[in-house]
Amino acid sequence: MSAPTMDEAAKVFVDPAAYADDARLHAALTHLRAHQPVARVESQHYRPFWAVTKHADIMAIERDNNLWLSEPRPLLATAAADDLGKQQLEAGMGLRTLIHMDDPHHRDVRKIGADWFRPKAMRDLKVRVDELAKRYVDKMRDIGPECDFVTDIAVHFPLYVIMSLLGLPEEDFPRMHQLTQEMFGGDDEEYNKRGKSPEEQLAILIDFFTYFGQLTASRRAQPTDDLASAIANGRIDDEPLSDVDTASYYVIVASAGHDTTKDAISGGLLALIENPDQRDRLRRDPELMGTAVEEMIRWTTPVKEFMRTAAEDTEVRGVPIKKGESVYLAYVSGNRDEEVFENPFRFDVGRDPNKHVAFGYGVHFCLGAALARMEMNSLFSELIPRLESIELAGAPQLAATTFVGGLKHLPIRYTIR
Ligand code: HEM
Q1: pTM for the whole thing?
Q2: Which UniProt key words apply to this protein (predicted)?
Q3: Which of 8, 115, 168, 227 is most buried by a 10 A CB count?
């Protein structure tokens, strides 16, 4: 493939289709890292921003959370969607999740749910997660010898785990699944069932708010031992969280908690199919599971970006950035940075060190990182020893989305014990 022009390269960030085409995406990112690691992107429907593609710059920006703020532009959205989000918040029906906030409010809100994701909580949850992993690998055996690994397995396992942690009833899981896909995958036709008009997008939010409003009321009236109760009854300076902050907390946990992990699991399996030497290595040496999981997360980088806005005039890699201008943290690019990773385009289950930025860095570092790691560890520890053969049964298909995404279909043929 010939090298893209600088303009073509920078356009990938605003083109959902680029994320469904790995070769095109990585050609553009590799080009930018080498020639314009801080690139200005101007595009019709988006306010301008600076795309930052080097690992060291992404880390430095995330580390300095007084200079680089999440407000008012925490992620890439069209100017129209940004404006709509602002109007919705003003009307009391908008999203203000942890990723939208800055300290000190961010720190106080994060604390409310944090205990549920600490190592001790993870150890308590492990038996249950192992049980679920076995259940889904058994299901794979039962529906074999072919399945769509994404829609039959990878979607359900993390959804089940996070809904259980929240304490939601099983009959509500499909509804949460659909809402999350609509909210995160709206760029992709297959996931966008309602359309993209402001009214249609607002309808998704209203559904979330209605559901979670009822949940808050019930957990305040009758607290139970689950994350939903911790959120509903959380207090800052002895005041309950606002309705917007409460509902937004559920939304971020419910959505970030499964779509991301599903992408890492299914993309991880595809990498193992495409690299049989690495699959054999992992089967022979299960001790490698920890590094293998980390490599799957680096390899897939399910969260493509977050953004920060400069609180003061500053510079990145010598490029002046004015107060109020935004930078786009290109995690996908950071995780293939040749200066940090030896052979970054090689999938290596023993990669160590592996300082990827797939979970971000600094005060917003992914709250659910330990949970995601544990889920993947459980699932692949159950699957790999039981898998006698596996191959593709059709073409894998990536979702066209600029935010959270990965495989939407992975047809496989296999034999499993
Ligand atoms: C492989 C799976 C996952 C990936 C790749 C991932 C990635 C990320 C990234 C990149 C961020 C932003 C970090 C930053 O700005 O520095 C983040 C934040 C967050 N993630 Fe995850 N995540 C995953 C799984 C989970 C799970 C299972 C949960 C469970 C609830 C979760 C909950 C959150 C929350 C609540 C935040 C916001 C944290 C804050 O702003 O303080 N994530 N995640």
Answers
A1: 0.95
A2: Cholesterol metabolism, Heme, Iron, Lipid degradation, Lipid metabolism, Metal-binding, Monooxygenase, Oxidoreductase, Steroid metabolism, Sterol metabolism
A3: 227
